[in-house]
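To: structure subgroup
Subject: Chain for Friday's discussion

All,

I'm putting the inputs and outputs inline so they're searchable in the archive.
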Amino acid sequence: MMELYGHEKKEWFEQVYDQRHKWCTALNRDMFSAGILSSQRSEVTNKAISFNAKATTNLFEFYHIFEQTVKRWRSNETSDNFRNRTERPKAVKSKSKLLKHAADVYTLALYNDFETEYEWAMASFLRAFATENSQLKLFEVSPEEDFSNSHTVAYDEATTELVCSCQCFTETGMLCFHIIRVMHMFSIFQIPQQYILKRWTRLAKSAVWENVQADKDQSQNAQLWTPWRHAITKNFYNLVSICQSNEDARTLCDKSLKELYKSVKEVFKTDQQKQQEIEDEELRRQTVENPEVIKTKGRPPKGNKRVKGHFEKRKMKTRHPNEYGTKTPNVPQVE
């Protein structure tokens, strides 16, 4: 294009071409991106937030708008999780074993994408290449009869490994119709386990903490502790909610918490920094008494009378009990 339109010496076009690996999707298919483009994240965020926000919206109003947006997201996520656990696609009644397996594995949205790829696979054309390796087989798959738009699929019978030149699985984690066409040819009626990403399955949110607990590597990132922290916080919150209305239960909680702090101290005996953090937390948890009542400005507290001033006392002395004013008016006498 640069040669066609004569832009070889244009500095801006040269910079864009040098950075083609950042913006050209054909050059970054070897990286997992779930099929999301670079601009979609900001566009989706703007669409979700700006439905109520305006140019004059202040930070306080924006916070409430964002809070309601997050609640709506979580509500939709909970609803989708319930639907994925309880509903099944229509493919359950289909005669295709591969579609039945995909319906049992993938979520509803991902199954619809897989079904579309399956339809393309059944309508595509395939031809084999001669190879010296008896285990490795090469096929060319194309939706056109003349194979003008084709991709090469390599299939290893020993390991049931399938690799396509379009690199759709590497980029999105979903099998393309080229691989599905080869699977159908070799009567593979179940998706191989290595091509099922848990993030696309119905059990994507299950056993989160169990998987983390199984990994005993102490050098792992601190973010892996987040699921346990959320779970234990939820349990403590539920316990506080139950005990807050009963005095004996509250006393028992305070007593048990002190004993728990002592036990944790024993665990961190050699770690002085952790022990100091625990002691600081115990001091912070001590009961704070109400501050002393101080003299306030304006209206005094109930029960304390304000001292009247000189002019106010003088007014009360000169005021007539039967008149509104502070001085008897001069009334003309009538003879």
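Points worth raising on Friday:
Strands lie at 125-129, 136-142, 151-156, 161-164.
The radius of gyration is 37 Å.

D.
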